[in-house]
Amino acid sequence: MSDRTVLVVDDEFAIRDMLRMALEIVDYRCLEADNIQDAHAIVVDQRPDIVLLDWMLPGGSGIELLRRLKRDEATREMPVIMLTAKTAEDNVIQGLDVGADDYITKPFAPRELIARIKALLRRAGGAEANERMQVSELVLDSKSRRVFLADEPLDMGPTEFNLLQFFMAHPERAYTRNQLLDQVWGANVYVEERTVDVHIRRLRKALSAGAKDYSGLIQTVRGTGYRFSARGAPTG
User: Which of 71, 84, 96, 153 could anchor a disulfide with 55, C-beta 3.0 to 4.6 Å?
Assistant: First the structure.
C-alpha cells in the first residue's frame, strides 16, 4: 500500500465508493467525508496528501472549506482538486482563484482523475536539478520549496511555485499555454488552457507582494503565451 493518502469529500456515497475503489487499485489510502466539518477535522488530524473536494456539500460549500484550508498556513499548500457539476466559467474561475489546483466536472472517468492526482502529487514533491535559482533579489529554493524576495519569504501556492520554478529554469523563451500545461501540469493531464491564465495571474500577484514588484518577470507574449525574462526585474 502506498503511503499517499487522498481525502474524498462528497455527500454522494456512490461517488465516494467509486473513488475509493479507484484509489485503492493504484495503492492510495482513501479517507472519506460527506460534509465540510468532518472533512476539516480529518485534514487537521490526518494531513492527507491531497483533497478531492465536491463543490456542493451539506452544511456549507466546498469553496468555504477551500478558503479555510488556504487561510491556514499549515494546510495552505495542500493540493486540492474540485469535483463539480458546475461547468459555468465563472464558477470554475472562482474555485481556481480561491486556491484550487485543478478541477474536474461530473461525470468524469476515474482514470482521468487518477492521472490528475498523480500529476499534482509529483508537482507537490518534485524539484528541478538546480536547487537554488536567483534573479536579482528574487530567490527560489527548490529543496525547501520556498521563494524569497530580499530575504523575505513570499506567500505562494504549490502550482505557482512550480510555474515559477519552470520559468526560472527556462528563461527568455516564450511558451504557449499548451506547452506550459505539458511541462508543469503533465502531458497526460487534462486541464483547460484558461487554467494557465488563472495561475499566471496568481503568480504575478505573489511576485508583486514583496518590497519590490517583480511581477514584470512574467511577460505576456501576444499571440503565443508567456515568457520569463530577467529584464522585467525592477531596477534601483
Answer: 84
